[in-house]
Specification:
The chain is mainly β. It has 2 domains: 4-143, Lipocalin (Beta Barrel), CATH 2.40.128; 153-261, Lipocalin, CATH 2.40.128.280. It is built from 2 helices and 18 strands. The chain has helices spanning 4-10, 28-31; strands spanning 34-41, 44-45, 53-56, 61-69, 74-87, 90-97, 100-111, 115-126, 129-143, 153-159, 173-177, 183-189, 192-195, 198-206, 209-216, 224-234, 237-245, 251-261. The strands form 2 sheets. It has a 9-stranded antiparallel sheet, with no helix packed on it.
Length: 263
């Protein structure tokens, strides 16, 4: 997952130097309007912690959300505003973030109401100099839900799968999601929920992608992150899933279920 932030910013970029006249997509700027998430990268299913949400708002404006985190790179980008310009099946997306310029060119090879295939080239520049260029192929799915408001409130539950995240202990957990982008985590002490003493605890939801980050008091500079995909929120029950990768490169799916409670 080298240079996650760079790859993450490039997820919405693609290019092909040969303009395939026989495969032009009519009204692409209108057809692409909506919210998209990458599900396959270079032929492999995309782990949840490498997913990015791309929202085309108009033929000239787009937003992306990502939570990049590795020993070398960290980025927390909810709803980053970008400019986009279309030319046939090609698009150029530009944005400034963290003092860096992303100029991203991509080609859309196919698009439907539900899916989109692209290849991309992304240039990562600092002070006008290209520091890195990345190429790749991605498959997107359109997101038809947004749980930004539905997640608000307190939820109590536990893992429902055989394998879960590195932070799970097999016990009940409780989170309270606030409208300001922060959350409170509760753990049980003598059978009662007690708020954790975190230095900070932030989250964002874009579509069904849930990204969280927090730092415990007394742990110095160490920050923790966890990513989930919200499968559903119905009748006071919320279900999560996440595609995770083991150290050997194999993958597994975690699941979690919780019920809304009153705090």
């Amino acid at each position: 997952m080298a240079a996650i932030l760079i790859c993450g910013a490039s997820v919405f970029t693609a290019c092909s130097k040969d303009d395939d006249k026989s495969n032009q997509i009519d009204n692409l700027p209108e057809k692409i309007i909506g919210k998209w998430i990458n599900v396959v990268d270079d032929g492999y299913d995309t782990p949840t912690n490498q997913k990015i949400v791309l929202t085309f708002l108009s033929p000239t404006k787009v937003q992306f959300s990502l939570s990049a985190f590795s020993p070398a790179t960290s980025g927390w980008v909810p709803h980053q505003d970008c400019d986009v310009a279309f030319n046939g099946n090609h698009a150029t997306v530009t944005t400034q973030a963290f003092g860096m310029l992303y100029t991203c060119e991509y080609t859309i090879h196919s698009i439907s109401d539900k899916e989109m295939d692209v290849d991309y080239t992304q240039n990562y520049s600092v002070n006008g100099q290209i520091r890195r260029q990345i190429h790749g192929v991605e498959h997107f799915q359109r997101m038809d839900v947004d749980y930004t408001q539905d997640i608000l409130g307190a939820w109590e539950g536990r893992s429902t799968g055989d394998e879960t995240s590195e932070f799970d202990d097999g016990e009940d957990h409780c989170w309270e999601y606030l409208a300001d982008g922060t959350f409170r985590y509760y753990h049980k002490v003598d059978g009662r929920w007690q708020a954790s003493n975190d230095e900070y605890a932030n989250y964002f939801v874009d579509g069904y992608l849930l990204c969280t980050c927090w730092k415990n008091v007394g742990e110095g500079m160490e920050e923790h992150r966890e990513w989930w995909e919200i499968e559903s929120i119905e009748n006071g029950v919320m279900k999560w899933k996440a595609l995770r990768m083991r150290d050997d490169g194999s993958t597994y799916t975690s699941t979690f279920e919780m019920t809304k409670v009153t705090k």
